[in-house]
Write a structure and sequence with these properties.
This protein is of the alpha+beta class and about 150 residues long. The protein has two domains: about 1-40; about 45-145, Immunoglobulin-like, CATH 2.60.40. It contains two helices and eleven strands, in the order ααβββββββββββ. It has helices spanning about 1-10, 10-40; strands spanning about 45-50, 50, 65, 70-80, 80-90, 95-100, 105, 110, 115-120, 130-135, 140-145. Strands 2-3-4-5-9-8 form a six-stranded antiparallel sheet, with no helix packed on it.
């Protein structure tokens, strides 16, 4: 109570400083985070994680992966005993790599443009096997791990 009385008796400059100091500190903290985040985003060669959409069922449906800068759709189809993995991206990428389980990554082949890719698999993907995708763009690399489920 004594402190509150002293605050009201102080001059207006002190009152203004007491009120504005916490606001300026919070604003500076937020601004520093935004500026540093932009600098990190602009660094070439940065690996960025893509997030899975909640309705991602790789073995039966299209699976959508998102990042602020890129979106990708991946789907698996069976044709004549072979399994085809199709990938479509929102921006062109230089390379696309796909790894199933503990195998070495396989390089996907373009389907005419740098936004459409495919890979032919000889064996089916079993349920529960992790599928890892890496997209290499001009400046950044994007990666995702997709659980193979129905």
């Amino acid at each position: 109570m004594k402190l509150l009385k002293q605050f009201y008796k102080s001059n207006r400059h002190v009152k203004l400083a007491v009120i504005l100091a916490p606001l300026l500190a919070i604003g500076g903290y937020i601004l520093a985070g935004v500026i540093l985040d932009e600098k990190i985003e602009k660094q070439p060669g940065t690996a960025k994680a893509m997030t899975l959409q909640p309705d991602c069922h790789l073995l039966t449906d299209v699976c959508e992966l998102l990042h602020r800068e890129i979106a990708a759709n991946i789907v698996i189809e069976e044709k004549q005993g072979k399994y085809l993995v199709y990938l479509a991206t929102s921006v062109p990428v230089r390379r696309a790599l796909l790894s199933i389980g503990d195998t070495d990554p396989a390089i996907m082949v373009t389907r005419g443009t740098a936004k459409a890719w495919k890979l032919v698999l000889q064996q089916p993907i079993t349920e529960g096997t992790p599928v890892r995708l890496v997209l290499i763009g001009d400046k950044h690399q994007y990666f995702a791990e997709i659980p193979a489920n129905r």
